[in-house]
């Protein structure tokens, strides 16, 4: 079978948004699944609106979600000579012609068409004239006048266009630059693209592109047009619905694998399965299971999936994702066993890395600040005895395992006659400053003996200091 070659061709006129990322993912997954090739192409022929910053932002976002490319990025702006060569081919074979119609003439054509209620179309004035090139002549494609052009779409089925609805569209402007549809087709041909998956906002471009493929005598790629992503009110996803850019989700504390899992599931299914690792997506992805109806972006679902991915990610790997969020909070954190054991206590309690970083703060603070109400309620002289007993018990403990800590607490309960809650809650406030935290045993395990004892001692001093007043 022919090697599958897909592409992602963003226009660099802004950041990579979630809809674009989903299109990129579909093409990337299909190429990876089929052991084919994935090409990145930057469609920057619109020089006015394309910027280097947007290119960089798109590349950064693709790298963050883990999409890699086998070829490219190619830049259309550097390929004008290729497009010219291909336009010449169509001129040579009589399938394109120079047109010198003035702006005024075109405007009149438009008006006339409107008067009779038709679509504004080029009327073919220069079609039969065999004009030579002039300074500002454009090149038009000699489109078929009758018959139909059928888009055989693997997602939507056949879509039939009447050729009479289309006109002799421009393929090269007066200044020598290619038009959008022409550049796309020349690129897809020269880059060997045989599978085109893109948003269904491009459906109307496809018949023109098909005509060009045929004019060049080239086989058509497989086309698939993916329904748009919608917001919760079923209108096309936009800023009104919340963050659109992929990197905004990174900054909110989503894991790249969770975001790709969510975006892929938004338009593709595999039975009822919701959770997929990246490798599983590659293994199971198929074009047949891309849905025909629009996906609705749901933040709650994305959060739930992110929580599941946080739970499923090994602490060492999670640490690398979490560190920037800790550093943002001026915490002196680094890779290693401490952060991994901290993560173990927080992984089941955090929906995002922001939340996890927030929850991890107390682990890194040398001097815990006690919440006022927590301190008032729980750091009272009556807890000095259990706190001191725990300090002693910890001295004799070799390993801070769950079992050992549980036994130590049972011992203290017996010695003091206090219930677990009466001991655990003051200990919690002593260790974290708060009344809500991860489980007491796992937390002590993560903090380690030295830190735990230092915090308990400080609480004892705090209580003694208070009661001396
Ligand atoms: N450059 C187009 C866009 O950003 C993609 C066109 C295509 O996939 O053919 O929407």
In words, what does this structure look like?
48% of the residues lie in helices and 11% in strands. It has 18 helices and 12 strands. The chain has helices at 18-33, 52-65, 80-92, 103-115, 180-190, 206-215, 246-251, 256-265, 278-284, 299-312, 315-328, 337-346, 353-364, 372-378, 384-396, 402-416, 420-432, 440-468; strands at 5-8, 37-42, 71-75, 96-99, 138-141, 148-153, 157-162, 170-172, 195-199, 222-226, 229-230, 295-296. Strand 9 (195-199), helix 6 (206-215) and strand 10 (222-226) form a beta-alpha-beta unit. It binds glutamic acid (GLU). Residues 9-11, 43, 184, 198, 202 line the site of glutamic acid.
Any descriptors?
469 residues, mainly alpha, Rossmann fold, Helicase, Ruva Protein, domain 3, 4 domains, three-stranded parallel β-sheet, three-stranded antiparallel β-sheet, 12 strands, 48% helix, binds glutamic acid
Biggest sheet strand line-up = 1-2-3
- Strand count, sense and closure of the main sheet? 3 strands, parallel
Determine the fraction of residues in helical runs and give it as a percent range: 40-55%
Our measurement of the CA-to-CA distance between the termini, rounded to an integer number of angstroms, reads 85 Å
The residue-averaged pLDDT reads: 96
CATH fold-level assignment of the largest domain: Rossmann fold
Give me the secondary-structure category: mainly alpha
Count of individual beta strands: 12
Q: Percent of residues in beta strands?
A: 5-15%
* Overall form: elongated
CATH superfamily of the largest domain: HUPs
Radius of gyration: 32 Å
């Amino acid at each position: 079978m022919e090697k599958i070659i897909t592409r992602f061709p963003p226009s660099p006129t802004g950041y990579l948004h979630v809809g674009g990322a989903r299109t990129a993912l579909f093409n990337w997954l299909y190429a990876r699944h089929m052991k084919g090739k994935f090409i990145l192409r930057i469609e920057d022929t619109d020089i006015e609106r394309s910027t280097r910053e947007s290119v960089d932002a798109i590349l950064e976002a693709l790298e963050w979600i883990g999409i890699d490319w086998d070829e490219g990025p190619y830049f259309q702006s550097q390929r004008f000579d290729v497009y010219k060569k291909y336009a010449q081919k169509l001129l040579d074979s009589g399938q394109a012609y120079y047109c010198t119609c003035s702006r005024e003439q075109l405007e009149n054509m438009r008006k006339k068409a409107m008067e009779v209620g038709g679509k504004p179309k080029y009327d073919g004035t220069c079609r039969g004239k065999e004009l030579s090139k002039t300074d500002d002549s454009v090149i038009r494609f000699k489109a078929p006048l009758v018959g139909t052009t059928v888009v055989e779409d693997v997602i939507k089925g056949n879509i039939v266009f009447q050729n009479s609805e289309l006109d002799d569209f421009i393929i090269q402007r007066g200044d020598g630059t290619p038009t959008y549809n022409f550049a796309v087709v020349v690129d897809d041909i020269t880059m060997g693209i045989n599978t085109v998956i893109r948003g269904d906002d491009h459906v109307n471009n496809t018949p023109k592109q098909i005509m060009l493929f045929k004019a060049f005598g080239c086989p058509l790629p497989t086309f698939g047009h993916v329904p748009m992503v919608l917001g919760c009110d079923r209108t096309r996803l936009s800023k009104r619905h919340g963050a659109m850019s992929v990197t905004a989700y990174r900054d909110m504390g989503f894991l790249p694998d969770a975001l790709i899992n969510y975006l892929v599931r938004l338009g593709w299914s595999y039975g009822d399965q919701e959770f997929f690792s990246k490798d599983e997506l590659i293994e199971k992805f198929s074009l047949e299971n891309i849905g025909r109806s629009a996906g609705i972006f749901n933040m709650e679902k994305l959060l739930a999936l992110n929580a599941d991915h946080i739970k499923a990610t090994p602490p060492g790997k999670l640490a690398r994702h979490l560190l920037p969020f800790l550093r943002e909070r001026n915490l002196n954190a680094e890779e290693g066993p401490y952060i991994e054991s901290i993560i173990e206590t927080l992984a089941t309690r955090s929906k995002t890395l922001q939340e996890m970083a927030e929850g991890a703060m107390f682990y890194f603070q040398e001097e815990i600040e006690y919440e006022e109400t927590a301190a008032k309620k729980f750091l009272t002289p009556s807890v000095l005895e259990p706190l001191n007993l725990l300090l002693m018990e910890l001295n004799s403990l070799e390993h801070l395992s769950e079992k050992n800590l549980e036994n130590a607490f049972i011992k203290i309960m017996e010695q003091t006659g206090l219930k677990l809650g009466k001991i655990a809650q003051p200990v919690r406030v002593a260790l974290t400053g708060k009344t809500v935290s991860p489980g007491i045993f796992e937390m002590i395990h993560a903090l380690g003996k030295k830190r735990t004892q230092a915090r308990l001692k400080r609480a004892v001093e705090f209580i003694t200091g208070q009661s001396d007043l």
